Amino acid sequence: MSVTALIGAQWGDEGVSHIADMLAAQSSIVARYNGGDNADHTVTIRSTPIRTHLIPAGAFYPHVANVLGAGMVINLQSLAREVDELNGYGANLTPDRLKIDQAAQLLLPGHIALDGAGETERGADALGTTKRGIGPAYTDKMARVGVRASLMSDPVLFEAAVRAHVERSNLRLTRDYQQPPLDADAIAAAYLQLAARFAPNVVDTTALIHAALDRGEQVLAEGAQGTLLDIDHGTYPYVTSSSTITGGVLTGLGVGPKHVKRVIGVAKAFCSRVGSGPFPTEQHDEMGDRLRGTGANPWDEFGWMTGRPRRTGWLDLVALKFAARINGLTEIVLTKLDVLTGIQPIPVCIAYSCSDTPIPNFPSDLSVLNQCAPIYSELPGWDQDISRARRIEDLPLAARVYILQIETFTGVRVTHVSVGPERSQIFEV
Ligand code: IMP
After folding, report:
1. Are 60 and 156 in contact (CB under 8 A)?
2. Which run of H or of E encompasses 224?
3. Are 20 and 30 contacting, i.e. CB atoms less than 8 angstroms apart?
4. Which one of 40, 108, 399, 422 has the fewest CB atoms closer than 10 angstroms to its CB?
5. Relative to the CA of 132, which ligand 1 atom is closest?
6. Active site residue: 21, 37, 40, 41, which one?
7. Contact of 221 with 249, CB cutoff 8 Å
8. pLDDT per residue over 119-175, tens digit each?
9. How far is residue 96's CA from residue 99's CA, in Å, rounded to a whole number?
10. Is 41 noted as a catalytic residue in this protein?
């Protein structure tokens, strides 16, 4: 049938995995197309939230094949941990149910060490990466010295490639960062074991996806990180190193535009960002704290690895319209609308003022964006608890006006709204 692309429409953490969980049930393949274990997704099994970083949302649907696509960078140690954990909950991720593309890049220990060393050296100008090695792994891919998953089936070639990776990394660690070298023997031994474990999972997933499409099946492309973190169109250099947008679905999975019939952008009813970089509608006061939550539940705005509070602020419609355009969004899923309950009025950004000139479009160029101040429109708020709303008619008029404003500004329909973390709290508009 066709591919549905599910994409974060802001700076990540929009709640993509909750929607992926819902759509996975109707798909025969769920495929990640970008990034690595820098992603933080949640699947809820028997009311227990389980965090995943690499494995797609189809893990707990027995009929779904889960694909780690060619556009990814895969840390095999994290993958092993995650598979073991999910299997402990009954996921049964056999090689039939978890497929690694032959062209996917492996993220190796030198990448992690270099990411950390680079961030430390940047000091106050650090990018605020997850220190998972993502940037250095994509650097090696583009420099054409990366280690592809297909090499895992040949232990001799694989070991040589891993040792060459450690040698290259050690040169930079010791020369550029005055760090101790990594232990090549220990890494080679550990990775030979990991390769033996995961070699049976490696296939041509592009062929697999096209076979499913030919049979008339549905494929879900699950995005990680958000549009504004895209390597090309995001707020460079404060971005991740992969293509997070619809273009990344095409290259990361090997499908053409004609296959992608739905492009769903997931957007929070406000905005958040982790790490450094511009965020025009950020609120530094108690309103920012209120949008963030206290951290008492996993739905609050705190980073998964370090627990660092996410930066929070008002909905930026200029940025959302930009995301709608560059992704070709066909629909928007609006998450966390309940968080805005009780705020009166609710500002939303409808333009930027740059050096006193209003500009209607999102400038991803940092030198322009840094000069911009948001221009707000104030929308009426509501006080009623909306967490039990299950139909659009259950929402107060002001909440419906808020949704309508998003649709009018972006030109994209809001098809689903979430009013809480439970699966039952997402409803169709
Ligand atoms: P990296 O992807 O670890 O290189 O980090 C680059 C930037 O992307 C940093 O600002 C991170 O905080 C951000 N980032 C990476 N993954 C995520 C995510 O899953 N959600 C939100 N931000 C992310």
Report:
1. no
2. strand 219-226
3. yes
4. 422
5. 3
6. 41
7. yes
8. 999 999 999 999 999 999 999 999 999 999 999 999 999 999 999 999 999 999 999
9. 7
10. yes
